């Protein structure tokens, strides 16, 4: 079956000097180890995350896609590249440079790799302008972080950006980042294991319970990473709360389950029981293959979970592995 992986990341060969032009202390850069196979994403002189060559080398990426039987992959920024901490105009050159580098990365194999852009989300006008520019230059969508400081997705600035994307037919992937933590999740990658799913659930429920989805056009194509985080498992809790507490339903005219046809999720849940719940909750028509490649927390055999999932008929399997992504991105 055809496979389209719609959630994968890249990080270009950004030098320390190039990062310093934005901010020497906090802008990320790539240190490649001797031998060229491994490296680290760096913040100033501190290692942020160990990485390997597929993250920046499209030739190795294609080799790995061939091994996994993946026909096409949509790649987007590693979230640390977003630059949301800076004033919008100050970061605009950085954002456009990163988007141009994403195009260069995918130009190695344009029939196999498609880029999604990043935007300066902190400035609405600039974010809308860059999303439209990116679409015109070959990006198939936009990836945004799930919040902007203390602003969740129901904030009117972020809703206005989503409205622009809906009106301009620009697909949006919402990716958790800058995860909530007060210091209690300091070991064992707890922010990634606990806070990251919670961030995604917060984003989905903030759009639903605020009534924001009522104000957004149905033309908006919206996807949440990592299987929607904790949302599918806790939908029943939110549904019960909407029916039983007026404070929960104050701004949402319908219960959360009413809005399941307004967004997509990816399949990066790693367990057949979790995927079964996801299909039961969202429907096979709202799930796209996503791997989080090439990070260690991603699916190590891309598409294997969906391909081997018990109980999925062939039509549902085909939709999740490729058909839904073709429709979502207009491929």
Automatic annotation (TrEMBL):
Keywords: Decarboxylase, Lyase, Metal-binding, Zinc
GO molecular function, one term: metal ion binding
Gene3D superfamilies: Metal-dependent hydrolases
E.C. designation(s): 4.1.1.45
Zinc in keyword set: yes
Pathway(s) served: Secondary metabolite metabolism; quinolate metabolism
A biological process from GO: secondary metabolic process
UniProt domain Amidohydrolase-related: residue ranges: 4-331
GO cellular component: cytosol
Annotated InterPro entries: ACMSD, Amidohydro-rel, Metal_Hydrolase
Top EC class, one word: lyase
PANTHER family: 2-AMINO-3-CARBOXYLMUCONATE-6-SEMIALDEHYDE DECARBOXYLASE (PTHR21240), 2-AMINO-3-CARBOXYMUCONATE-6-SEMIALDEHYDE DECARBOXYLASE (PTHR21240:SF27)
Family: Belongs to the metallo-dependent hydrolases superfamily. ACMSD family.
Subunit structure: Monomer.
Protein name, as recorded: 2-amino-3-carboxymuconate-6-semialdehyde decarboxylase
Organism of origin: Pandoraea faecigallinarum
